[in-house]
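Anyone opening a protein record will find just a pair of labelled lines. With that in mind, the following record should read easily:
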Amino acid sequence: MKIIHIISSLKEVSGPTQSVRNLCQEQYKKNPKNIKLVSVDFQQKYKKLPFSRLFPLGIGPKKLGRSPKLFKWLRSMTIQNNQLIFHNHSMWHMLSLYASWVKKYPHIKIIQSTRNALAKISLNSGSRIKPIYWHFLQRRALNKVDCFHATCEAEYEDIRELGFKQPIAIIPNAIDIDNNIEISNSSEDRILLFMGRLHPEKGLETLLEAWQKLHIEFKGWKLKIVGTGEKRYSQSIKKMSDKLCLKRIQFCEPVFGNDKWRTYGGSDIFVLPSPSENFGMVVAEALACRTPVVTTNGTPWHDLPSNGAGWCQDYGTESLLVSLKEAMSKSRKELDIMGERGRNWIVTDFSSAKVSQDMYEVYNWLFDQTKTTPKCVRIN
């Protein structure tokens, strides 16, 4: 069985991209000859992977992600392989349509990871031509999908609300647990960390409003905000920090690779105050680094408290303030115990090995549905 993963970018800049790389890395260990991760060359810097391949952009607007050479190569793969899986992790680019265009025979199966692209907020935002693209191209491509992949219950509901009847596999994002650097914060300052995109959807305003009170009460703590975003919004967040006269707050550029793991592990608490998240890759990564998490009920991490690994409360400044006060009042020893519980939870349910195994069950089932339906797959 040949498995070709299709993604819009190979740059390590977002949670979904990193999770796809993690999944492919795990699959490549067991089946190196038959795993490929393909994309188009947007002239971005990225870490070369042994299973990845870039194709040149064709004529037309760069944002379209049009690549005739990628299309031609995918078509050739349908002839050369008896069992072929196209696992599509991209939408709203031309390259995300190619699998449906070359699917002519039953030995070709398509699985589509939606990556929150079918949420109402995503469908209603972006370019003015998005509705046209959806009606004439994207929806028609999704009609040819054999199975959808959702990372959580909310994504499952988004798919069903749009009327798609295909099976849906609910499998979380793959988390790299092997390359985490085991490190703890040994400095006198205790660190509350946010890491991710600086974007209105991340709820950073509520975090700054909460910090306005916290920095006065918890003088031994520092707030570290790591990430980048659209220039205007990033500047507005920094201006808000100045306006609130916040102390012990540090804005840092994004970090990757070992530096990223050191940043997680060197923090006492991780916070994600988003009103909504389809998965929240940064939460899983923080837990993998033994760092307890404070987040909201708008994320799918409702089991943080029951696993003894963090706090999950309603979205908003006051709710966030209550949880952060409780978390920041804990001793380092207490937080270390919570961090260990979080790590064990991630290893058990979210490791790349576990996610890869679940995905292979889905792939095999697609070619022989007389087999028992995988537990992660919903037919209804």
Notes: The chain has a mean pLDDT of 92. The CA atoms of residues 208 and 241 lie 7 Å apart. Residues 190-349 form a domain with the Rossmann fold fold (CATH 3.40.50.2000).
